[in-house]
């Protein structure tokens, strides 16, 4: 059985490496589709938390489509591993995803969450920056940056990231509370 394991790994690796060249593969997945852009506009104008939550779920669903069944499976496996607190396994799956689909913003975002869960803040910030380079409207990545900077006691940076997330994603009580708490520390006290 061990004699076949390296061969199987080689076949799987070759398959995954060929995917970005396939029509409809992850290289063609776009963060800013017309549908997600329209949903972002509706989210910014949402009048209540229920409506905002529904629209946000639609956006996250759109962002989770890589254009490749294999890459979508790696994303699912990484997220599933995070749900059961198997962070190392999640990082393995999500690193494979970002290696094979580096233009897929949601893969980077999921990897950032795994790093944050493992309290590896430097790699988390790097992955969040990659997410935002690919999808500047990724409110989850902005919220994640706010959380990391808050954890690292960098209130001005946390405030800025949370503010940018709040502009895209209204009706988030956690962001509102963080902004209120950080306002004095980030902006300084006025006399």
Automatic annotation (TrEMBL):
- Write the protein's name: Tetratricopeptide repeat protein
Identify the stretch annotated as signal peptide in this record. Answer: 1-29
**Which stretches are TPR repeats?**
105-138
Instruction: Supply the InterPro entries for this chain.
Output: TPR-like_helical_dom_sf, TPR_rpt
Q: Which domain of life is it from?
A: Bacteria
Q: Which keywords describe this protein according to UniProt? A: Signal, TPR repeat
Give a yes or no for keyword Signal in this entry.
yes
């Amino acid at each position: 059985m061990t004699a076949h394991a390296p061969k199987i790994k080689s076949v799987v690796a070759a398959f995954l490496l060929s995917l970005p060249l396939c029509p409809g593969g992850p290289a063609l997945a776009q963060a800013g589709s017309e549908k997600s852009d329209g949903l972002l506009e509706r989210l910014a104008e949402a009048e209540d938390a229920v409506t905002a939550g529904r629209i946000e779920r639609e956006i996250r669903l759109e962002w989770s489509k890589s254009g490749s069944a294999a890459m979508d499976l790696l994303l699912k496996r990484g997220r599933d591993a995070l749900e059961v607190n198997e962070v190392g396994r999640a990082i393995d799956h999500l690193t494979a995803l970002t290696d094979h689909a580096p233009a897929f913003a949601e893969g980077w975002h999921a990897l950032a969450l795994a790093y944050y869960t493992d309290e590896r803040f430097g790699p988390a910030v790097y992955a969040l920056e990659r997410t935002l380079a690919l999808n500047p409207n990724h409110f989850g990545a902005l919220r994640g940056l706010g959380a990391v900077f808050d954890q690292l006691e960098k209130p001005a940076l946390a405030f800025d990231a949370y503010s940018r997330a709040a502009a895209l994603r209204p009706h988030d009580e956690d962001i509102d509370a963080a902004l209120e708490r950080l306002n004095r520390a980030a902006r300084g006290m006025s006399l």
